[in-house]
Predict the structure.
Amino acid sequence: MTALLELRDLSVQYRTERGEVPAVRGVDLTLAAGQTLGLAGESGCGKSTLAMAVLRLLPKSARIGGEVLLDGEDVATMSWGRLRAVRWAQASVVFQGAMHALNPVRRIGEQIAEPITVHAEAGHEPSRTVLRRRVAELLEQVELPASRADAYPHELSGGQKQRVMIAMALACEPRLIIADEPTTALDVIVQAQVLDVLGRLVADNGLGLMMISHDLSVLAATCERIAVMYEGRIVEQGPSRELMGAPKHPHSKALAAAFPVVGDPEFRLTPQDAAGDGGTLLRTEGLRVDFPDRAGGTTHAVAGVDLEVREEEIVALVGQSGSGKTTLARTLLGLQQPTGGRVLFDGEPLPAGGRALRAYRRQAQLVLQDPTSALNPRHTVYQAVAEGLRIHRVPGDERELVADALAKAELRPPEQFFPVLPHELSGGQRQRVVIAGALALGPRLLVADEPVASLDASVRGEILALLLRLRAELGLATLVITHDIGLAWNIADRVAVMYHGKLVEVGPVEQVLLAPTHPYTKRLLAAVPRGAVTG
Amino acid sequence: MKAFWREFVRNRSGVAGLAVLALMVALALLAPVLTDRVGLDVTRAQFPRWQPPAADYWLGTDHTGRSVLLQTWWGARVSLTVGVAATLLSVGVGSVVGLAAAHFGGWLSGLLMRVTDFFLALPALVLAICLSTVLPRGIGTIVLAIGATAWPATARLVRAQTLAVEARPYIERAKVLGGGHLHIIGRHVLPGVFPLVLVNTTLTVASAIIAESTLSFLGLGDPGLVSWGSMLHEATLHGAVSQGAWWFLLPPGLGIVLVVLAFTLCGRALETVLNPRLRVS
C-alpha cells in the first residue's frame, strides 16, 4: 500500500533580498492512512512551510526541491486542474488562527458548503437540501448543533470557530488532514475539547492527520508519533510516549521542558520557602471593575477580589481568557479605575491620579505579553530603557543606570545593546529589554502579563529563570498573570485561580494544583494536556 | 541633527528634490534683485504680442507682450508663498485637532470631530469665496481660505493614525512607566504620526498651489500679483491654445509639477530618515 503522504528529501528555499534563505532542508517523512503524526518545533523552524508545501500553497518566492507524494502522486508534476481537485478532496488544511480564516460576512453554513460546491462535477451540483443536510452532518461531527449553520462567525466563540474550521476541512471527505497550530489561540479547556473532537474524527474515519504545533504536550495528547523540527531538519522522530518521556536531542529536551508536568518536582524551578516572610506589599479589598456592555447592561469584569501579594513573593493569577485577570492587573497598576473596593500598596490606598500616581509608578512595573509590540519600534534599546528614568528625572548618570538595568536583565555587555533597534533583537532579548526598562526604576513589584506566552520554548526557561533570580537578588515581588498552569507550577509560590471575575481558589502552589478543592480548578487541571505523564 | 543630515544625504532623490526646491526658493527670493518688476506692468509691455521664445524673451511673450519668463519668475513667489503658508496652516490645525480628538477621546473628541465634519461637508470653494468677499483681497485671505477648507482631511487622517498608534502596547508601557499626556504624545504618538503628516503635507502643497490658481481665476486673488495659477488662467482666457502659444502654458504648468515633485521627493526622503525600519530594509 502506498503511503498517504510521503516526503522525500523535501527542501524549500525562499528567495529574499539577502539571498536564498533555506526554510526546510532535506526532510523525509511518511504518513499512512489512520496514522497521526505531530510536527513540533519553534517559530521559524520551517514546520508551517513544510505543511504548505504539501498542497503547493507556498508563495512564488519559494523554491522547492525533493518530492511530495500524495497517494503516490507527485504534487510538483500535477496540472493546475488536478491540483485543484486534489486540494480539499484528498488533503485539506485546518489553518492557524480560526479567528481570521473565516469570512466575517458570510454564514458559516455557506462557508462549510463552499468546498463541496466547488468540487462538485459540472452539471452535478448538489441541491440546496442535500447541501444543508451535509452541512448539518458535518456540524454534528464536530459537536456543534446544526442550527448554528445560520450563524455568522462573530456569533461563535473561539473554540466553536475552530470546530467550524475542522468541519470545513472534512467537507470533501479528504483522507489527509493537516492541522497547523489548530489550538494555539484557545484556552486550555476549549483546547482540550477541540483536540478531543479532532482525535475522535481521525480515529472514526481512518484519516491521516499531520498536526503542527510548538506545544509538545498538545501533540502528545493527539498523535502517535512526533517529529521534532529544528532549523529546517527533523532532528528526532519517534512514538509520542518515548519522545515526551525521554527526549534525546537537546532541542527536543528544551521543547519538552517548556511544557511542564504539573506535580513533577523536576519542573518546580522555585526553591522551597524562597518567599521571604515579609509583610504585605499589595492588597486589594473587595475590588470591583464594571464595564457597560453593548446591550446597556454591565459586565462585571472583576467582581469583588481580595488578593494579597507579599514582599519577595511570586504569585500566579491563573484563569481562562475573559476571566478578568488582565483587567485586574490593569487596575492594580492604576491604568483602570476600580468601580468599587480599593487597592492598597504598602498599606496606602492607590492614588487615583496626578503626582502621587506617578510616584507609585516607580514602585510597580508592568511586563507585557508580546515584547515585540511593547517596545516602540523607533526607539533604540537605550531610549527604551532610559524612558522611565527620563520621565521620573531619576538623579544619577543616565548611561550608568541604563547599563546597570540591562545588566540586571542579563543583556551583557550592556553597552553593545545601546544603539540596537528592537527588530534586530530576538524575542527573548526583547522581553529582557522590557524587563530592563521596568527594572531601571527600581520597582518593588513586577506585574507580568503572560510574560512568556509569545516566546519560544527554549527562551521561556531563560526568562523564567531571570524572574526567579530577580526575586532572589533584588527582592522583587512578582504577580504573574497567565492561562498556563504549567507556568504557575514552574515559578509561583502561591496561586490564585480566577473565574468569572472572582478568585475561586487561593493558596500555595502545591496545595491548589495538587489537591484542588474548587470544581473549576479541577476542570482547569483536567484540561491540561498531559502527554506522556511520567510521574 | 548631524546624524539626521548624514542620513538624509544618503537618499539621492531626496537631495535632488531639496536642490530643486532650494534653487526655486533662491530664485524667487532674488527676483527683485535680478529682474525689473516694471516688465510685469501691462501698460508698459515692451515686446510684440504672442512671440515664441527668442533672445530677448527666452520664454516668449503673452497676449499683452510681456515676457513669460519674467511672469513665471515672479509667479513662483506668490505660488510658493501661498502653497507653503496654506499647507502649514491646514496641516497645523488638522494635526492638532486630529491628535487632540484621538488622544483625549470622550466629549472633546465628539465635539472636535463634529466641527471637522461640518467643515468637511461645506463646499470648499463657496467657503473660500465667502471668506474672500468678507475679508480684504490679498495673499493673506487666499491662504486663510485654502487653509480653512483643507484642514479637515488632515484632521481625519491624523486622528485615525493616532488611534492606531495609541492602541499599541508600548503606549500602555509608557503609561505604566509614568509618562503623562505630553510624554506619550511627544515621544510616541507624534513620531508615529509624523511620516503620514509629512506625506500629507507634500500632497497638500500641490493642491494648495492649484487651489490658489482656482481662486485667482475667479478673481479673488490680488490682481496686482502674478501667480502660476493666474498665468494659466490668462493663457486659457486669451486663447493661448488656439494661438499655438505653448510657451505661455508650459512654464507655469511645469513650475507646478516641479515644485510638487520636489516636495514629494523631500517628503519621502524625510520619511525614510525618520522611520528607522524603512532605512534598514
Remarks:
- The CA atoms of residues 343 and 350 of chain A lie 6 Å apart.
- Chain A has two domains: 3-257, 279-527.
